[in-house]
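Job type: complex structure
Entries:
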Amino acid sequence: GIEEKVPVAIVSQGSPLMYTPALKKAGIRVIQVCSTVRHARKAADAGVDAVVVSGTEGGGHSGFDQLTTMCIVPQVVDAVDIPVIAGGGIGDGRGLMAALSLGAEGVYMGTRFIATRECPAHPRAKELILATPDTGTISLRHGAPSPAVDDATGNRGFVEERRGSIRLVINDYLRRVMADGKFSYDEIFGKASPDDPGKKSNRTVDSYIWGKLENTSISAGQISGMIRDLPTCRELVERMVAQAEAVLKRLRGFHAE
Amino acid sequence: GIEEKVPVAIVSQGSPLMYTPALKKAGIRVIQVCSTVRHARKAADAGVDAVVVSGTEGGGHSGFDQLTTMCIVPQVVDAVDIPVIAGGGIGDGRGLMAALSLGAEGVYMGTRFIATRECPAHPRAKELILATPDTGTISLRHGAPSPAVDDATGNRGFVEERRGSIRLVINDYLRRVMADGKFSYDEIFGKASPDDPGKKSNRTVDSYIWGKLENTSISAGQISGMIRDLPTCRELVERMVAQAEAVLKRLRGFHAE
């Protein structure tokens, strides 16, 4: 990335001290993805230009503490002096205006942009998002269990529900393995699929690129339940702007009353 | 309630068909607390006047599906024709404006009003809310395990993380029992406390009214992390209105750009 002089690097999972100095030295703006006040403060102290604050409702990796966008965005806004970008749970102009109301300077959207014409995801993956209801995703625990909590530092290690988590769509495959009593990411996806033990692919490539959903599922957020079409990105953005203007008009109406 | 002619009844946990007809017949307005689109539709069909939609970030009982306020409020707004009131994660004027942006007609606030001078909760319970950081609550599973899923109806019964849940503050007591490997509400609070096996009290009364936090914790939402004072209710509401006006001004500024 540094050789290609990319203008902005979005970094997640791992200390902000790892890449920030080299990226900044190369003139690249750095945005760190965080999900707690402590991590956002660490990133700000490390010199990043902005943070993405990602709530548990978002698809894929969604932090250790299951904090929701509604709760964590204003707490990070109060804690750091750099711009905060809200991620997780934003699917339309109403979500955009809610995020800005919470103090965010912008939004970070994944699932909604996967369900667009331009996205190279496999049609079966896009169809699965369209078919997912409000209750159709689950945040699976991830990582090795270790219930040790260090009272001195407050570091709770990886404990049960507070371990790192990954939000996936509950498709037929996931429903079947959950019915067998499996509820952690490692129990379900920890090994290569039995029919292809030597494969070099991974779950995300299999599901999103190849559309193979028989032995896996896709990462997607709770807003999947409100996604009902596959617009172009242009149509999506124009629709969001129109919705945001309608929200602003509505909010001004409350004020006038 | 019916004899006293209360003007409004807020009903939660259980079918909206149970009390709605009798309450409506007595001229009482009925508001049903819901946490999914399906439950909100059922309540609207049963004739309630409005629904409270409560996200998983809220304190206490927080539904079966861990849906967040950001995601479930707009989905319910789209699904029903009656007013939607947003609950869970609203602690100040920013949260109020976010909820209204999502399409809610009003907000339902618990934790923030417990941390006021007027609230009769025990001072130790209020102090615990003030001391709780962003990551200081946990949603514990509730109910008997039963991983059966009925594919025909989509009813997943009570399965692991998707069982009913209760959000509590992680205090010293809860931290200790979690370190012992206990992570479900029933494991922790299923029996009367060992030192008083015959007691007729319950966890909520013990903690919130009597301030006994040695063998229990309090229900509170993820916004506990942004609560830093104990204002009067009047001060709280006036502050929220001022914050909401500042948010509106900020949103209008984005529009003008």
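Summary: The radius of gyration of chain B is 19 Å. The first strand of chain B starts at residue 8 and ends at 11.
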